[in-house]
Structure formats: structure tokens, C-alpha cells
Amino acid sequence: MTITCKPCRERSTHRITKQGYYRGTVLVTCPGCKNRHVISDHLKVFYDKSKDIEEMMREKGELVQRGTLGADGTVEFMKEITSTAKGGPEG
After folding, report:
1. What is the DSSP string of the chain?
2. Can you give the pTM of this predicted structure?
């Protein structure tokens, strides 16, 4: 997963398991400012209900994009999965 830290704008990539993302609570540490960011919280440690980063971003009206990373480092975004909180699927 590649994220951009909002406070320091550092872009970083982190490896997480599907089980952790969909069933557990996952935090990642920004290498730039050392802030910890909640990626998913299905154990309800930080929120009253299960949430993941996609749901949190949609609630704020932010763009959520999924894609694949090729062996050569290129990113291909999947149009059918891209969505926002207000507009639903874009395409």
C-alpha cells in the first residue's frame, strides 16, 4: 500500500497482509515525521465501528483509488473501483 502522509507530505509504501487489513487493526508509521496512521480498525480499537482507510477517506469526501503496481514500477489505476463519498463510482 502506498500512502501520502498529510502532515509532512512524505510518500511511502508499506506491506500489510489481507488478513490484517480486513480482520484486524493496522497502523503504519510515516518514515518522514514518525506519525502513526490508522489504515484499518476492524477490532474497534480506535473507532466505535469497523473501518478501513477507504471508508475513512470516503467519509471525508476524499478520492479513493485502487490500482496495481507493475514490475517496472508503473501504476495502473482501476477505473471501476475509483469512488468518492458524494458521487459514488466515477468513470
Report:
1. -EEE-TTT--EEE----HHHHHHSEEEEE-TTT--EEEEEETT-SSSSS-EEHHHHHHHTT--B--EEE-TTS-EEE-GGG-EETTTEE--
2. 0.69
Q: Of 52, 60, 66, whose CA–CA distance to 84 is shortest? A: 60
- 34-37's contacts with Cβ under 8 Å and 24+ in sequence apart are 35/5, 35/7, 35/8, 37/3, 37/5
Q: For the segment 30-41, what is each residue's pLDDT rounded down to a tens digit?
A: 999 999 999 999
**Residue 8 region, left (φ>0) first, then alpha (ψ -120 to 50), else beta?**
alpha
In the beta sheet, which residues pair with residue 89? 83
| Single-letter amino acid code for the residue at 64 | V
Q: What is the average per-residue pLDDT within 41-64? A: 92
